[in-house]
């Protein structure tokens, strides 16, 4: 057993790109569900909006695999594309989703959002739109401006991070740069949410979560506030999705499957519903547990590496491939157990807010 | 206290709510009596018949109807509510009182008819103005000076008492998303609202609960909180849906005094109530509904002798006795109906903490028992 | 609620033990993925351009890992088939040089298609072509179109009936408990897999005919449904958990079962041993293989049976009463908890049967049920959440819509129509086609 690998895998997951991405997705979801009571089961599609918003516009025009050039809007400046990805797409998506559903019962939003996530996935995968989305291969060649000038080899000139070097023993130069930017973004967003939730605006959201009619009887336009919450949470999720696309230098449909939404839910519930810092902690714990169990099990499965017998779990119980699945089974168990036994989350306080409240 | 609240009223530049707490009880009583006499005077000449004209109506309802399936829940030809007095809306269960409230505040939309609210400019800057309520969705109704409470108390139990109160304030700058990000912009207004809220809490004797979660309050305290919160809106017309339901008898008298206090400050009160004793004590005018229609109107003394009213309640007696079959033995009609309202409240609380639910149910029980005792005595 | 509604302890214990034994056997079974001697490791297809067969085109087939390369030429009717060495992932590519004039490969896929060979039946591989053979009659005569529509409609009815069996359970569970069960799709997967286990992997050293395997699968699923209710949902209801908590619990369960299925079943899709290949019966305007007829027959019979059960029997009336108004049903002496238990048992059994029947026409995969889940949601919301008959109508509409929509949109987007219609219906008539107007909004 190589404990060093297990622990560095765990640390990398805890502080790396994935934890950042899901912290943002979960903060957004927490605004939707935790603070406002909106049941969004399609956070993945908001994340995808951020990723594709950036990629579609920033990508260097390419030739689709089936022939045919990408439409002419590609090749926009990076910052323009970031704005489209952060503001344009998710705001539009939130309005399209919200206008019809926010007047209806909460579970309708749940069904519509999960369906929208699937519709997006089908469309993005479809070869029919290959020239726009790159179908299942997705889009590439859009993230370079993020890294250029900051992360490069010393031979290329004056740079902050060297891609060929390891930082903290965990990250490459590119990753390190993303991790720093990512956590700064998370901190800024969390601070903004902290301010918002202490403001009269946040108070109205909490009132709507508890009793929409009470809020309306006191002159608050519940529909408008729910829409605002949907937009704000969606935009934050989109920032997460965009960071994922920048980190993997790829925007493809399989990065935004429905399970991604469920992972974000686990992070929210784990950290404590309606807690400003809950989702961040939840995401870190979630990915740490996932990486630890994955790394540990893979190390434990019997296998032969360059003639040497390693591990103790026989193949008849599980193979290395199967070991990779055990963590997802664990996630499911974790989600079910939390919802059933500790709806206020690990950090939450049941008197203040729990999953149960609506 | 008086000074600070008054100063805040001046700052906000609108009519003030006198919140004097310093007077001796004798003075208060004398003044209350005088005010009640004045209110009674204002409707003294009004005809005692359904749909009668009032000298200065704040609310005018015409031909309003609402059906659910085949059942006509509300079918009001004409109703005027006099400004500045306490009007009670009574009637047996299923008479359509709560539906009527919902229709007035646009929590429900009528099938036909018009509803007009006339503001005297007291709550909003500006002069007397007429509003066609059809054009105001529920949340805007509060902003023109009409506020309501609910039969099942809607105190927001996961928010503290003071947060509940501050929620009620209208025209908050910090409720705009972008400005909310800049606390220095809304901070001053927030502090003013907080002071006003604290003043109201003191008046409703909830100041010691300021930072408790509203969920920890007793049933009666929640009713008080809801009423206090409604006042944060600076309403002209306060509509209270069964303010006494599920309230511990010890708190009932103080609730009654608070309702009277609203009128003394010049607000108009329209409230739904089952308990005739209470209606007799505080209302200046009584409107009786049965099967969706207004069947009688008049001062409280006249109403209790009205044959149509007695018939309506007796009819309801039989109905509710049938409804309950096993459980609630019909003590008398008023009690029977009160228990029903309370049952609803009890079941609503089910989702909350068990302790809380039992607490509320306990409240309800004692209230019902006390009523029964009074009835015998 | 009352004491009488507590589940009978001994029955629960026996059920738990029984299912634990079954689960232990299932997971100790050799990896379901292990291939067995099978003559059906092959790929096949028919090459068409604009619905006209294209003969004499060379198709190259290679293993994705490069361990195999082969080629085949399409026959006069455009059909081709090729035996392959082992199960695995392959790539078929059209040799564009051999295409007749006027025909070209589709830009979208470049005349290439990747596919997995399950080894249980020849894998159908469809590769699209653009254009039309010069000189050939235009393929889109209205008559050809009508015939295709009819064929698609029949396929749609089949899909709708299968969906119906999955939807009724979801709808009844929602009706009686208010729970939107996200793990319903996994009941479908489990049903298909249990039957696969008996049918192909074998238990106690024997494999069984699909009919026996299917019956065993349905019985096990009935047990699973009852067990879920007994050990998960009933306790949660007693604790007073909110519907949202329960919904999240169901999501967790769904993930556990889904990845558990992948753990045991692997990523490849597989089919049952029996009825894998059948010769189609020509009905003139449309053709059906006998197993499709059986599927339609069986599901129609079962669904009519369920309808009669709901309409005529005591328990069926009780189910509808609880769906309609739980409190009223309870106060009129119905043992609500017992009714819910039966709803779970029968709902899970029906979902399992739906999975098995689907497995007969399509291959079984670890995420079959999950992919059906949204279609089941679409069907139930279309008909009106909580109404059993609504779920049936909704399922048929969704099934037909999915199949017929391929007349106008690419087949890989065929589920889009159903999802859009679901959203549309939610917006204009939230109570669904057959639901009542109250209780919404």
Describe the structure.
The complex is a heterotrimer of chains A (358), B (377) and C (441). Chain A has 358 residues and is an all-alpha fold. Helices cover 64% and strands 3% of the residues of chain A. The model of chain A has no long low-confidence stretch (mean pLDDT 86). Chain B is an alpha/beta fold and 377 residues long. Chain B has 14 helices and ten strands. In chain B, a hairpin with a 2-residue loop joins strand 1 and strand 2. Chain C is α+β, with helices and mostly antiparallel strands and 441 residues long. In chain C, the strands form four sheets. Chain C has a four-stranded mixed β-sheet with strand order 3-2-11-8, with no helix packed on it. In chain C, helix 2 packs antiparallel against helix 9, helix 2 runs antiparallel to helix 11 and helix 3 runs parallel beside helix 5. The longest helix of chain C is centred in the middle third of the chain and has 36 residues. Chains A and C meet through helix 5, helix 12 and helix 14 of A and helix 5, helix 10 and helix 12 of C.
Helix segment tally of chain C: 12
User: What is the CATH topology descriptor of chain A?
Assistant: ABC transporter involved in vitamin B12 uptake, BtuC
CATH topology annotation of the largest domain in chain C: ABC transporter involved in vitamin B12 uptake, BtuC
Helix content of chain A: 55-70%
Named at the architecture level, the CATH assignment of the largest domain in chain C is Orthogonal Bundle
For the biggest β-sheet of chain A, the strand order reads 1-2
Q: How many individual β-strands of chain A?
A: 4
Using the alpha-carbon principal axes, give the shape of chain C. globular
**Number of extended strands of chain C:** 13
Provide a count of the helices of chain A.
Answer: 14
Mean of residue pLDDT values of chain C: 81
CATH level 1 class label of the largest domain in chain C: Mainly Alpha
**Largest interface, chains and sizes:** A-C, 55 and 47 residues
């Amino acid at each position: 057993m190589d404990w060093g690998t297990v622990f560095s895998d765990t640390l990398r997951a805890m502080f790396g790109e994935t934890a950042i991405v899901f912290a943002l997705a979960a903060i957004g979801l927490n605004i939707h569900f935790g603070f406002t009571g909106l049941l969004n089961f399609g956070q993945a599609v908001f994340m995808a909006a951020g990723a594709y918003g950036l990629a579609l516009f920033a990508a260097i025009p390419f030739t689709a695999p089936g022939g045919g050039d990408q439409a002419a809007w590609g090749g926009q400046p990076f910052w323009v594309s970031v704005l489209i990805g952060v503001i344009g797409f998710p705001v539009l998506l939130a309005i399209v989703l919200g206008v019809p559903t926010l007047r209806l019962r909460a579970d309708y939003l749940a069904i519509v959002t999960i369906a929208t996530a699937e519709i997006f996935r089908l469309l993005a995968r479809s070869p029919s739109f290959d020239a726009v989305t790159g179908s299942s291969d997705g889009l590439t060649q859009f993230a370079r401006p993020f890294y250029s000038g900051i992360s490069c080899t010393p031979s290329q000139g004056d740079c902050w991070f060297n891609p060929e070097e390891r930082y903290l023993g965990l990250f490459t130069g590119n990753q390190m740069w993303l991790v720093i930017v990512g956590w700064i973004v998370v901190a800024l967003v969390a601070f903004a949410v902290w301010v918002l939730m202490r403001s009269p605006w946040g108070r109205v959201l909490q009132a709507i979560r508890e009793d929409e009619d009470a809020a309306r009887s006191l002159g608050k336009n519940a529909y408008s506030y729910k829409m605002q919450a949907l937009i704000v949470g969606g935009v934050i999720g989109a920032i997460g999705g965009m960071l994922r696309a920048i980190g993997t230098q790829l925007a493809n449909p399989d990065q935004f499957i429905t399970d991604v939404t469920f992972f974000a839910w686990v992070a929210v519930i784990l950290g404590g519903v309606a807690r400003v810092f809950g989702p961040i902690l939840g995401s870190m714990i979630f990915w740490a547990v996932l990486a630890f169990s994955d790394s540990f099990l893979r190390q434990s499965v019997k296998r032969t590496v360059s003639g040497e017998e390693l591990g103790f779990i026989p193949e008849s119980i599980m193979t290395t491939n199967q070991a990779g699945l055990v963590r997802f089974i664990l996630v499911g168990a974790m989600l079910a157990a939390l919802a059933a036994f500790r709806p206020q989350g690990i950090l939450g306080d049941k008197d203040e807010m729990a999953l149960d409240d609506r | 206290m008086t000074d600070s609240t008054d100063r805040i009223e001046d700052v906000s530049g609108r009519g003030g709510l006198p919140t004097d707490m310093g007077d001796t009880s004798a003075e208060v009583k004398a003044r209350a009596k005088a005010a009640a006499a004045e209110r009674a005077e204002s409707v003294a000449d009004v005809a005692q018949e359904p749909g009668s004209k009032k000298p200065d109506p704040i609310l005018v309802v015409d031909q309003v109807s609402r059906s659910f399936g085949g059942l006509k829940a509300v079918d009001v030809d004409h109703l005027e509510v006099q400004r500045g007095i306490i009007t009670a809306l009574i009637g047996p269960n299923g008479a359509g009182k709560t539906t009527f409230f919902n229709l007035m505040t646009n929590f429900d939309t009528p099938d036909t008819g018009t509803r007009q609210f006339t503001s005297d400019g007291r709550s909003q800057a500006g002069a007397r103005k007429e509003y066609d309520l059809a054009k105001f969705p529920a949340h805007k109704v509060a902003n023109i000076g009409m506020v309501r409470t609910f039969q099942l108390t809607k105190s927001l139990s996961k928010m503290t008492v003071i947060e509940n109160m501050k929620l009620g304030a209208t025209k908050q700058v910090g409720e705009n998303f972008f400005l909310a990000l800049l606390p220095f912009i809304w901070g001053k207004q927030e502090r003013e609202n907080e002071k006003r809220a604290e003043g109201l809490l003191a008046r409703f004797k909830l100041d010691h609960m300021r930072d408790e979660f509203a969920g920890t309050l007793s049933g009666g305290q929640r009713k008080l909180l809801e009423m206090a919160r409604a006042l944060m809106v600076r309403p002209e017309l306060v509509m209270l849906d069964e303010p006494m339901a599920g309230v511990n008898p010890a708190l009932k008298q103080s609730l009654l005094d608070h309702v009277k206090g609203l009128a003394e400050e010049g607000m108009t009160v329209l409230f739904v109530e089952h308990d005739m004793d209470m209606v007799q004590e505080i209302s200046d005018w009584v409107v009786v509904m049965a099967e969706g229609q207004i069947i009688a109107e008049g001062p409280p003394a006249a109403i209790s002798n009205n044959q149509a009213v007695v018939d309506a309640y007796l009819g309801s007696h039989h109905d509710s006795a049938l409804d309950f079959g096993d459980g609630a033995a019909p003590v008398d009609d008023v009690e029977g109906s009160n228990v029903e309202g309370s049952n609803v409240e009890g079941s609503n609380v089910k989702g909350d903490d068990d302790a809380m639910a039992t607490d509320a149910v306990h409240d309800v029980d004692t209230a019902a028992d006390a009523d029964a005792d009074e009835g015998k005595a | 609620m009352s004491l009488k509604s507590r589940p009978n302890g001994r029955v629960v214990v026996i059920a738990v033990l029984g299912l634990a034994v079954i689960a232990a056997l299932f997971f100790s079974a050799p990896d379901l993925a292990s291939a067995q001697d099978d003559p059906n490791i092959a790929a096949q297809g028919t090459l068409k351009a604009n619905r006209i067969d294209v003969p004499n085109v060379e198709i190259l087939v290679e293993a994705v890992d490069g361990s195999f390369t082969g080629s085949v030429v399409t026959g006069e009717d455009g059909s081709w088939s090729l035996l392959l060495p082992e199960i695995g992932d392959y790539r078929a590519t059209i040799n564009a040089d051999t295409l007749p004039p006027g025909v070209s490969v589709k830009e979208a896929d470049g005349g290439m298609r990747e596919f997995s060979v399950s080894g249980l039946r020849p894998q159908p591989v469809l590769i699209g072509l653009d254009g039309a053979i010069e000189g050939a009659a235009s393929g889109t005569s209205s008559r050809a179109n009508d015939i295709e529509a009819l064929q698609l409609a029949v396929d749609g009815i089949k899909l709708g009936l299968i969906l119906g069996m999955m939807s009724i359970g979801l709808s009844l569970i929602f009706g009686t408990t208010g729970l939107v069960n996200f793990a319903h799709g996994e009941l479908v997967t489990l049903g298909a897999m249990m039957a696969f286990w008996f049918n192909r992997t074998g238990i106690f050293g024997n494999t069984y005919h699909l009919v026996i395997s299917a019956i065993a699968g349905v019985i096990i699923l009935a047990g699973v449904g009852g067990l879920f209710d007994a050990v998960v949902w009933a306790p949660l209801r007693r604790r007073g958990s909110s519907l949202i908590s329960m919904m999240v619990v169901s999501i967790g369960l769904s993930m556990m079962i889904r990845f558990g299925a992948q753990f045991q079943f692997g990523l490849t899709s597989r089919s049952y041993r029996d009825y894998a290949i059948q010769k189609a019966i020509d009905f003139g305007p449309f053709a059906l293989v006998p197993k499709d007829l059986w599927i339609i027959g069986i599901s129609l019979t079962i669904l009519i049976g369920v309808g009669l059960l709901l309409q005529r029997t005591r328990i069926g009336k009780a189910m509808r009463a609880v769906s309609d108004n739980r409190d009223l049903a309870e106060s009129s002496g119905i043992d609500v908890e017992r009714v819910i238990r039966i709803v779970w048992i029968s709902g899970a059994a029906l979902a399992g049967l739906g999975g098995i029947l689907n497995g007969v026409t399509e291959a079984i995969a670890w995420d079959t049920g999950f992919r059906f889940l949204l279609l089941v949601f679409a069907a139930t919301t279309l008909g009106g959440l909580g109404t059993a008959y609504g779920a049936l109508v909704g399922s048929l509409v969704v099934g037909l819509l999915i199949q017929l929509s391929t007349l106008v949109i690419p087949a890989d987007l065929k589920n889009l129509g159903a999802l859009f219609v679901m959203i549309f219906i939610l917006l204009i008539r939230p109570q669904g086609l057959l639901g009542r107007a109250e209780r919404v909004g």
